[in-house]
Amino acid sequence: MHSALPAASPWRRLLCMLYEFVILFALVFVVGLLLPMALLPLAQRAGLTAVVQGPWFWRLIWMLVLGAVAGYFVRSWTRGGQTLAMRAWRLRLVMEGDRPLDWRQAATRLCLLALCFGGPVLTGAWYRHQPSVLPYFAASCVFLLVVLAWAWLDDDRRFLYDRLTATRTALLPPCGAKR
After folding, report:
1. For the chain, how many structural domains are there in total?
2. Burial class (CB in 10 A: 0-12, 13-18, 19+), 89
3. Which residues contact 156 (CB under 8 A, 6 or more apart)?
4. Residue 126 falls within a domain, yes or no?
5. In a domain, 26, yes or no
6. Could you report the per-residue pLDDT of 51-88, keeping only the tens digit for each?
7. 62 is in which domain, residue-wise?
8. Which of 30, 114, 120, 173 has a CB 3.0–4.6 Å from the CB of 177, allowing a cystine?
9. Computed from CA positions of residues 105, 107, 108, 109, in that sequence, does the dihedral angle turn out positive or negative?
10. Res 2 pLDDT > 70
11. pLDDT (tens digit, 9 = 90+) per residue, 11-20?
């Protein structure tokens, strides 16, 4: 496959992922904590205290958090191929042939990423309350490591989810560089 943009190294993509987690923390903080903090006093004034203390309210908040995260990724990948962290690291997500992703491919990639990263996050949070999930946590961490280690075994240095979705992360030239 010939491409005008060089592939980004696995290390650069892993460092970008760390930066992405900081951005995701801020997004989850705003939607998952500040939004309910703003809604609770309004509900109390309107006499709806029992409604916001019910389980459906917090399920709705979690759905909003997941929707915000999914929307952030899908919109960023389909409109320019870059999340905020990818812009900082000069990375762009493209399909083979350096074409931008369509929403189906972005949604598929997001689902695969959720499978890879969701396991350790959910079982890690669950482990605090239920120590018997330690084997599941360990298995999900091993699965994530295999998915990420795939880049060092792959000819094109792609992570497994990139290989499965026919996407790649390209390294953009510096801002002032000639093309």
Report:
1. 1
2. buried
3. 1, 7, 163, 168
4. yes
5. yes
6. 677 778 788 888 999 999 999 999 999 999 999 999 99
7. 10-171
8. 173
9. positive
10. no
11. 999 999 999 9
